[in-house]
Specification:
The complex is a heterotetramer, with two copies of chain A (93 residues) and two copies of chain B (481 residues). With 93 residues, chain A is mainly α. Helix content of chain A is 82%, strand content 0%. In chain A, helix 2 packs antiparallel against helix 4 and helix 3 runs antiparallel to helix 4. By secondary structure, chain B is an alpha/beta fold. Chain B folds into three domains: 85 residues; 178 residues, no CATH class; 182 residues, TPP-binding domain (Rossmann fold), CATH 3.40.50.1220. Chain B contains 18 helices and six strands. In chain B, helix 17 links the parallel strand 4 and strand 5. In chain B, helix 1 runs antiparallel to helix 2 and helix 6 runs antiparallel to helix 7. The longest helix of chain B is centred in the middle third of the chain and has 29 residues. Chain B is elongated and about 75 Å long. Chain B starts with 10 loop residues before the first helix and ends with a helix. Classes of the chains: A mainly alpha (93), B alpha/beta (481). At the C-D interface, helix 1, helix 2, helix 3 and helix 4 of C face helix 1, helix 2, helix 3, helix 4 and helix 8 of D. The structure holds NADP nicotinamide-adenine-dinucleotide phosphate (2 copies). One NADP nicotinamide-adenine-dinucleotide phosphate (NAP) binds next to helix 8 and helix 13 of chain B.
């Protein structure tokens, strides 16, 4: 994939993000923040790659650390926002 | 390298999985636009993440599967434990902490990519794109990590005020930022363009970049007031997304680019929404300090104009009321008073009083903070009214109970053009027949300015911790019914 | 560019289109229709390519026809929606 | 092939130009969300188109620049001439016509690509992706072209009703569609997969595909009622976008994919919005016919219950009115009565009467049709009220003037569950003190069902052509003031 193609994806995603996020009401901003936060843990994909198939010792160590950190971000983020949101639903009975 | 369980499939199979994951993320965020679908959205989004990780693990050859599984388990366990054990009031710092970890991971991945890409035997060039994007991901990720740690520490009360102030600090910030950028340029030129330096010469450049960016990140966040941290955390959230997107450029990975950019946009928008509703600019939050509202005239304003009241008196007022609006603020979060508040509202409703909550968009310390707390205490979604819709109703309201809020009910915002919060929309509670303000003292809120509301004729102060006072009100109410 | 990359662009653009178009109020739907119509004349790019550099006679003829048709679509579409919209602005004084 | 003026630049330069063009299209559409910015949005969008075309022309070697310039000029001139010379009421068919041209261009491009790709000397395979996408673009583009021609012809009154009806037609549609698909498959298998057939054998397959798709397109649109054409045109608009996007897959061209998909989404959404506000499904529009509202009971309803009135009488009612709402419909468009209507509204306003327009979302024959017409006659944007906001005001309205509207003010939609338009939201004009209905006869509107409104006690009919009647009202009003 060329750099410009990557840029195109970036631009489309940025516009799309803008359009969607501005539609989200204030009262959901806190769960949104931790949910978005969890998505940013997508860097876990890269971490898995280097941790699992790093060719040098150093790369593997860095990778393992990265996996641990990114997983905390992903799992923690989704759980926190799940807890918050399920309280909204309870309240919204 | 593609020799995992599914490694015999063409690369487009993996890309397709990433595309599906991206669709899941997008749909997840779209579902966040309504409380009814938001829980499902969060699940969909996490499903996308699971799919993306699973496809990656199965597609590539894993040299050390045990190690990988172990690190996934450790990370998952720590994340889950933190999420389960934390109080709702501590959410802001937890989100900040998680966020930092995401940024840190990006830094490490970029570093590992560099380490792996170099072949010690030769001095072959690494390629301009790899080194450039790695340098960017390294800087952004590191600033996110250390900035988030400081921000979370401040919110948790572990980190105090910065010893280095004003100009000095700004010069030092500039120096370390420049150092990080220079290290990045060195990396790009040496190993990317020239490709002639031996390994030993460029690898340290990356770590120098990380070190400089780390100090810059700390210096950036350290001097910012603890109360501005939510804005900083939203900004860092945006940065961690951008770090992931940049890593996506390094790895040519659609999922990283799309997901990272979505988060980048989300964080940035939240940042500006928060700044807007505080009527401040982002630079003012990051580099300025709140304008000092003269402490002296505070005494003048309050002197002789403060009416104190007691839970019993308030109970009597509530008894006579037909419509009550409760305005919660940061103090309710600190005191964990949401359950007591909800109980009081329920009691009033049972005796036929019309009770609503007036929620200011920046009440508390995170956007939607009050909604999340009250929802935790089972308050009906319909009972929480937004600023625009509740303001016109105050004139038909008998009693307003302000609990732990201060700036969001400050009339100076409307009446005093010189005030640091002038122009910020506020809840105009003073239009109600009587206003009860519950806080521990006359000390100011986040913005540090006095509040003329406390001195108004129809305002009475109910001093005390929010949880205790609300509980007292509940008890007083129960005694008489 | 791989097929999947093209598909990704397609998906992002589809979501983005949905988010934007649903925000457009009814009273602008007629100019929107002709404006969107003009955009669909983007196929003009392909027409220009085959008309200008077609290697066989047949391809060139097809290309020229395509250019004429696509240009009618583009120019006409934008003009029609411009006229309509400028009337809105006059009315909105 | 890249040997144009800018041909020495790397391909990424062209791609970058396409990216910028895509951003222009997106921003142009985003600006369409408000009337204030919509004109600018249209300009931005056309700027993107200009950029994309210019970059393409300059980048590639042009074998016959004169030919290219000439065809661009011819197309531009024809397009501009049509746009300038057409009446506002004829917009729907013009948009349909333009749309058809876009689809036709896609068909021709896909065909030319196939012709060019084949090397007569060899029998080398053409590649699965090229043939598949070309087949799709060919079918979609052709259906768009011929479907749009028929739709525009019907709207313009050039094409009458279909001689082939119901079942027979559906069978024939299915046959020709199947033929087109088979020709496409033959193309893919012969030249794409096997690649063994000589040129002469597969080239006709593409034209067979085009011929079959053309007949299918005609058969698809021909039997649909003239009044349903706007839905068909929106759908065909969506298809022309998808044809462009598919061509983008053939040419690996970002601008085509992104822009085409945006249009595809826009057309599809408009289609569903229109179907929704008519309370019908898309399949019902395409393949069903409107349920027949029994013509017999029309007489029963109207018999003896119709009050006729004259311009002079109406003028007297208007004289006494404080608030008047004008409800325009398709008849106003047909009669070109918008200027007379606007003049009447101005006169009333001048004498202190509160005048507003009640605009139903599907009044007329295109979404926003009435708004466009009234805007042409200089009616204030603020004066045009939407269904939801104007409905509650009818009970405080003295006189409602319905001119050329019928279905959008039909009470059966609310009151008669068996009615074909049951459930469609309507303008509840009967809540007003008096209702004047201006049309030429008692004949039904688009949906073919009788309208009990005409027989209500507070309704008077002002029979006549909309333009003439409104002009009469203006004259009567001028005489008395
Ligand atoms: N929501 C966001 O996204 C966000 C982000 C950044 C900044 N902010 C800022 O935060 C402020 C929020 O306004 P706010 O009205 O909610 O809060 P505030 O203005 O910060 O005032 C909170 C008040 O609560 C009282 N309090 C503290 N602990 C208490 C306890 N245990 N029991 C009872 N009262 C207690 C304090 O007074 P005592 O000490 O006298 O008790 C204080 O005056 C705004 O200025 C806003 O700009 C908000
Ligand atoms: N807007 C859209 O996007 C769209 C798209 C497709 C379908 N539709 C459908 O179109 C209909 C629109 O409703 P509508 O109320 O606007 O129109 P309508 O129900 O079609 O009624 C129009 C009326 O105007 C009268 N008329 C025709 N020419 C006239 C003239 N020269 N002067 C005066 N009156 C004239 C006709 O009655 P006489 O013959 O007695 O004069 C007819 O009853 C709806 O059923 C809707 O579902 C709308």
């Amino acid at each position: 994939m060329s750099l410009v193609t990557n840029l195109t994806l970036f631009v489309l995603a940025a516009f799309l993000g803008y359009e969607i996020i501005t539609k989200i009401p204030t009262n959901l901003h806190t769960p949104l923040m931790s949910g978005a936060n969890a998505i940013s843990g997508i860097t876990l994909l890269g971490s898995v790659l280097v941790a699992g198939s790093g060719e040098t010792m150093l790369a593997t160590v860095l990778g393992v650390l990265a996996v641990v950190m990114a997983t905390i971000n992903v799992v923690g983020g989704y759980l926190v926002s799940h807890f918050m949101l399920s309280q909204f639903n309870r309240g919204g009975r | 390298m593609a020799d995992g369980v599914l490694g015999h499939l063409p690369p487009s199979a993996l890309e397709l999985a990433y595309l599906v994951a991206a669709i899941f993320f997008i749909q997840g965020l779209r579902d966040m636009t309504h409380p009814r679908t938001a829980t499902r959205g969060n699940l969909i989004s996490s499903g996308g993440m699971f799919l993306a990780v699973l496809a990656t693990v199965l597609y590539f050859e894993i040299l050390s599967p045990v190690l990988l599984a172990a690190s996934l388990l450790v990370g998952g366990a720590v994340g889950a434990w933190l999420a389960v054990s934390v109080e709702t009031t501590e959410m802001p710092q937890l989100v900040g902490l998680f966020n930092g970890f995401g940024g840190g991971a990006s830094t490490l991945v970029a570093g590992a990519e560099l380490v792996d890409a170099v072949d010690p035997a030769t001095t072959a060039s690494l390629g301009l794109e790899l080194t450039t994007t790695a340098a960017i991901a390294g800087i952004v990720g590191t600033v996110t990590f250390f900035g988030s740690l400081v921000a979370a520490g401040k919110l948790h009360g572990l980190v105090g005020d910065s010893p280095i102030q004003g100009r000095t600090n700004q010069v030092m910030q500039a120096l370390f930022f420049a150092a990080a950028v220079l290290a990045g340029l060195f990396l790009i030129v040496q190993s990317g363009l020239l490709g002639e330096a031996p390994v030993a010469e460029w690898l340290p450049a990356y770590w120098a970049l990380v070190a400089a960016a780390a100090i810059f990140g700390i210096l950036l966040v350290y001097p910012i007031g603890g109360a501005d941290m939510p804005v900083v955390i939203a900004l860092l959230n945006s940065m961690s997304g951008l770090a992931a997107a940049t890593t996506g450029f390094v790895l040519d990975n659609t999922a990283l680019i799309v997901a990272g950019t979505l988060v980048g946009a989300a964080g940035l928008i939240l940042t500006f929404i928060m700044c807007d509703s505080m009527n401040r600019s982002l630079t003012n939050v990051l580099f300025g300090s709140m304008a000092e509202g003269g402490d002296e005239d505070m005494e003048d304003i309050y002197e002789g104009n403060i009416t104190e009241t007691s839970p019993e008196e308030v109970e009597m007022m509530l008894d006579a009321a037909e419509r009550v609006v409760i305005v919660p603020g940061y103090g309710m979060a600190v005191a964990q008073a949401q359950h007591a508040v909800a109980e009081l509202a329920d009691l009033l409703e049972e005796t036929g009083v019309d009770v609503e909550f007036g929620i200011h968009p920046v009440a508390g310390r995170m956007p939607g903070h009050m909604n999340a707390l009250l929802a935790e205490a089972d308050v009906d979604y319909e009972q929480m009214r937004e600023l625009e819709s509740v303001n016109p109703t105050f004139s038909q309201t008998d009693v307003v109970i302000v609990t732990g809020a201060n700036d969001v009910v400050n009339p100076s915002a409307k009446e005093d053009e010189g005030s640091p919060i002038a122009g910020m929309p506020v809840l105009e509670v003073w239009d109600a027949r009587s206003v009860i303000v519950n806080k521990r003292s006359l000390s100011p809120g986040f913005s540090g300015i006095p509040n003329p509301l406390f001195a108004k004729d129809n305002t009475s102060m109910l001093f005390g911790d929010a949880k205790q006072s609300m509980q007292d009100l509940v008890d007083a109410y129960n005694e008489n019914h």
